[in-house]
Design brief:
alpha+beta; Nuclear Transport Factor 2, Chain: A; 2 domains; six-stranded mixed beta sheet; 33% helix
Length: 291
């Protein structure tokens, strides 16, 4: 397992997307130079499963040709990674596609998957699939279901989104207050049981508004608060996440450093219930994963 491979794929996709959509700050020549470090010179891009103009592109010259072809057909074409699943030397990407045809202006939306193979810090192969199940099988993840992959990565997306990508929750607070927080990962009927902060113990928060209110109450006593993910463990239809949370009290200046655990329950790919635990082992025990 290599999170580094996931980050390599994420960086390559971000660079390609910028050029594909004609961002002036990055030209095709700039992209070729930057990708020389991330993509092997003999890399293969297998688009043979697509309906129109199936082809296989080889090397950085092939990638450049693919981008030029896309630019000829589309005014805009976005590939947004929804989930990136680490499979050792491979990374499975579940992605949403949105394009606007050149000349026609017709917009299309679809969903697909791709498998990226990474070796020695470079992408050596990428293949696209219509069915995510086929992508998981190609990456050697036959035992994974879409719900498992989605639930694990939903949590990772949640942690990244709610911490504004930095891990410092105060940086997301203003967005919450402006109503800009993405709550789509939570079921509308979600409930949260807090057992950590003394004045929260035994309290249950309901719905999107309740979750936001709980987050506000978590942040309120602290000058800053950071919650780092240590691991996510599967437990049937539930997940357990373990963390370190660090904070500085607003009035006393006392700094805190403590473990933290959560048990998460999902329904149709969304979080329907979660509960916090001071001791991560208690979270594991509650999910039936006790030693």
């Amino acid at each position: 397992m290599s999170q580094a491979n996931v980050e390599i794929v994420r960086e390559v996709m971000a660079l390609v997307d910028r050029v594909r959509n004609r961002e002036q700050s990055l030209s095709l020549d700039d992209l070729t130079e930057r990708l020389a470090v991330l993509v092997a010179s003999d890399a293969q891009i297998d688009m043979s499963r697509r309906v129109f103009n199936p082809d296989v592109y080889r090397g950085q010259a092939g990638l450049r040709r693919l981008l030029e072809e896309i630019r000829e057909v589309w005014d805009e074409f976005r590939v947004t990674p929804e989930r990136l699943v680490d499979a050792g030397e491979s990374v499975v990407v579940i992605e949403s596609l949105r394009g606007r045809g050149r000349g026609s202006g017709v917009e299309t939306r679809s969903r697909s998957a791709s498998v990226w193979s990474v070796r020695d810090g470079q992408v050596i192969n990428m293949a696209t699939y219509h069915d995510p199940k086929e992508a998981f099988e190609a990456a050697g993840l036959e035992g994974w279901t879409m719900s498992q992959a989605t639930n694990v990565d939903t949590l990772r997306t949640l942690f990244e989104t709610w911490s504004a990508g930095t891990g410092t929750w105060h940086e997301a607070q203003e967005a919450w207050r402006r109503g800009e927080t993405d709550m789509s990962l939570f079921d509308p009927d979600v409930s949260y049981d807090d057992t950590v902060l003394p004045d929260h113990v035994g309290e249950t928060y309901h719905g999107h508004e309740g979750v936001l209110r709980a987050a506000e109450r978590w942040i309120e006593p602290f000058e800053w608060l950071r919650i780092d993910v240590e691991q996510i463990v599967e437990a049937g239809d539930r997940l357990v996440s373990t963390h370190r949370w660090r904070a500085k009290a607003r009035h006393t200046g006392i700094e805190l450093d403590s473990p933290l655990g959560y048990v998460w329950t999902f329904r149709d790919g969304r979080i329907i219930h979660f509960r916090s635990y001071i001791d991560p082992q208690d979270a594991l025990n509650a999910a039936g994963l006790g030693q």
